[in-house]
Amino acid sequence: MTQTLYTGKVHVTGGRDGAVHSQDGRLDIKLSTPGGPGAGTNPEQLLAAGWSACFQGAMAIAARQQGVTLDGVAIDAEIDLNTDGSGYFLAARLNVSTPGLDAEVARGLVDAAHRTCPYSKALEGNIDVAFNLV
Q: How wide is the angle at C-alpha 102 spanned by C-alphas 111 and 91, nearest 5°?
């Protein structure tokens, strides 16, 4: 049985050169085309922020389940907007820093997080994704 835990609601006007406002007023930002003259953010940066934040939360859950202490974990997310002449597509990387953790333990946490993070589930099989331990 599906239970909806939360629904994020936003209103967008003007597309990539517009604005985004959330229904609850917590998000109110300007958008601009990547590399363009505007001062706003863009959908690729928003996806990078959302996915990496969710992924770090999923890593914390996996760490608790495995009895591992996470200290100083950081994620640098990269979302590529690509074209091949026939259309646009995305690719993504999460560069995960896990100071003090054994590489095998860190890889296990990343793999577990990828299996449980809702963003990872949405992206997997739809775009190229990569996870790098740094």
A: 35
